[in-house]
Design goal:
The chain is of the alpha/beta class and 262 residues long. It has a single domain (53-241), classed as Phosphopantoate/pantothenate synthetase (Rossmann fold), CATH 3.40.50. The protein has ten helices and eight strands. A six-stranded parallel sheet has the order 3-2-1-6-7-8, sandwiched between helices. The protein has a two-stranded antiparallel sheet with strand order 4-5. Helix 1 crosses helix 4 and helix 4 crosses helix 5. The radius of gyration is 18 Å and the shape is globular. The protein starts with 10 loop residues before the first helix and ends in a 9-residue tail after the last helix. Bound molecules: ligand PTJ. Residues 30, 32-33, 36-37, 39-40, 43, 77-79, 83, 103-105, 162-164, 181-184, 187, 200-202 line the site of ligand PTJ.
């Protein structure tokens, strides 16, 4: 990994880029994943690279759904493994969710590399690798259709951190609750999920694991109350409205980055 000085104004973002590139070299991430990451970076820039209130509200509902679920599953692709394997494992522990590898660009080599990365952070059971991905999501043509009969196929709640849209729709048609994390509130995934968390997976997954640690002590009634009060179109509206207002404010100023005085 190249060394980026911590004083660089874009340090955090550049480090994430390095993690994705490193993930590519380790066969976790595909080349297309680098493009997807760049798309995410652009939306994160517009969000101001901070977790906003609408993301926290959606995350709370997502955690409540996972804690109430009979069979929650966290779906992991290459980018998620490279950026947030540790937090996936912590969230799975805190919610009792299964972890399943599910790839758009599926290959045995990548499945194994991703499972290995998850094991490195303490995951013990990892579904969706090799022959375990023997079931099929109906109506889906991509490799994402291949799922574990012990995992996504029978799940009632599926968390999809960073995804491409067609599977979210297919899972919804199967009657599942889909909790999505996507920096782009306009994406198909964001628009069709049951609960959409508009934030970066590297920021929100650790927050969700912490929330789950506290919320798992709550009664089912209290958790159900959160879900009953939750309205995903309102949350998406808040996210899109936030981008609009932030850009309007920045547009009024034109130049908003000030150079330090010489
Ligand atoms: O590992 P595979 O084979 O399953 O392939 C995974 C990729 C990411 C290549 C595949 O799912 C894909 O092509 O995704 P898309 O269609 O480019 O969608 C990715 C979405 O995730 C976009 O809406 C991005 O804005 C968003 N995104 C990118 N990085 C992040 C993110 N959302 C949250 N956190 C991120 N770090």
């Amino acid at each position: 990994m190249i060394s980026i000085p911590p004083s660089h104004p874009r340090y955090k973002s550049l480090m994430l880029r390095e993690r994705i590139v490193e993930g590519y070299k380790r066969r976790l991430v595909v080349l297309e994943g680098l493009i997807a990451h760049g798309r995410g970076e652009a939306f994160d820039y517009l969000l101001g690279e901070e977790t906003r209130g609408f993301a926290l509200k959606a995350a709370r509902a997502g955690v409540a759904a996972m804690l109430l679920a009979r069979h929650p599953v966290i779906s992991v692709n290459g980018n998620t493994a490279a950026l947030a394997a540790e937090h996936v494992v912590r969230l799975a522990e805190a919610t009792g969710a299964y972890i399943e590898v599910n790839l758009f660009y599926r290959s045995r080599e990548r499945e194994e590399a991703i499972a290995e990365e998850l094991r490195r952070w303490g995951a013990r059971i990892i579904l969706g690798v090799g022959d375990d991905a023997s079931a099929t999501i109906p109506e889906l043509q991509s490799e994402r259709r291949r799922v574990s009969p012990r995992g996504i196929l029978v799940a009632d709640v599926v968390l999809v951190p960073l995804e491409d849209g067609d599977r979210t729709e297919a899972l919804r048609r199967m009657g599942k609750t889909v909790v999505a994390v996507d920096l782009n509130p306009l994406s198909r995934t964001a628009q069709t999920a049951s609960i959409t968390i508009v934030d970066n997976i590297v920021r929100i997954l650790p927050v969700m694991a912490k929330m789950a640690g506290e919320m798992k002590e709550w009664s089912r009634d209290r958790l159900s109350g959160i879900l009953e009060a939750y309205d995903n179109s309102r949350i998406l509206g808040e996210a899109i409205g936030f981008l609009e207002e932030r850009l309007r404010g920045l547009a009024a100023r034109g130049v908003f980055l000030e150079l330090p005085k010489a």
